[in-house]
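Hello,

Our lab assistant flagged a job as stuck in the queue for most of the afternoon. It eventually completed. Since we weren't sure the result was trustworthy after the delay, we are filing this so someone can double-check. Below is the sequence as submitted and the structure that was eventually returned. Let us know if re-running is recommended.
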Amino acid sequence: MGYVLLILATLCWSFVGTLVKTAAMSFDSATITFARFAVGIVFLGGFLLIKYRRIQLRFGMKWIWIGALGKCCNYFFENVALSIGYSYGNILVGPIQTVLLLLFSAFWFKERVSPRGWAAAVLCIAGVLLISWNGLPLSVLLSGGALTPLLFALSAFGSAFHVLSSKMLIREMDAGNMNFSVFFWCSALMVLPLPWQSHLAGALSWGPVLAMIALGAITGLSFYWFSQALKLVSFPIAVIVSNCAVLFTILWSYLFFRDPITVFILLGSAILVGGLVLLNLPVRTRARARQEQPNVRPGLARSREA
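-- returned structure --
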């Protein structure tokens, strides 16, 4: 069952770019962002009620609001970039977020970063730069070709702060209610600009509507599936399989939208996946060793969201 949940979560994450691109055929980015949160809390809230018979909505904690603002930034800029760019572009968010978290750990939390960690960061950066460049002439990049990578970088910045908030909140809340609270306030924040920004980007049809519902389901449930999978599957396998979402994302972008997949995209993807795996494996191994010691509070592992 653990492998089923792991593969299900990985496939869900790989479809995000395709689903956002489909939803953008009818809806603007602000509406898509709001729907991802609003539909997500319906799915997550329903699950929590069925499993635990109650939901804890928290709001009087600063890290909930930091996490909500970060996640709004993450989804909004990601949706804008996917709407105007290729559907595989969001593969840049994960490695940029990873490098940012590494820098936060070193310079904010004053944690020691191993040489392997810095080497992994270099690989992630190299992969991101290679994908962002994609063989384009410098004149094209300067004239606007670098806009979508910049938007994905802003998205990753927001995502990094959401992960930091999760590390702080998980000390006091379970993962289900923590995400419900953050996503609830995300939907409340994202409803504010809708009267001015919401509009139909194209003819309304069932495809974009179903894509919006699917995005909400992924937002609400995929993190829970992944956390449950970690209890049943070894972490090295979980890291490798979950990072294969990058490869599936590229595959779906070609199959559904015929997005051009160049050798720069493939090589850059391979490099950044290698960096992510290299960075995560030793970190989790040490965290798991601490968990196995009696009377020691488990370490806070880096979380992965849709």
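-- support follow-up --
The delay was a queue issue, not a problem with the job. The result is valid. The CA atoms of residues 29 and 237 lie 35 Å apart. The longest helix spans residues 263-292.
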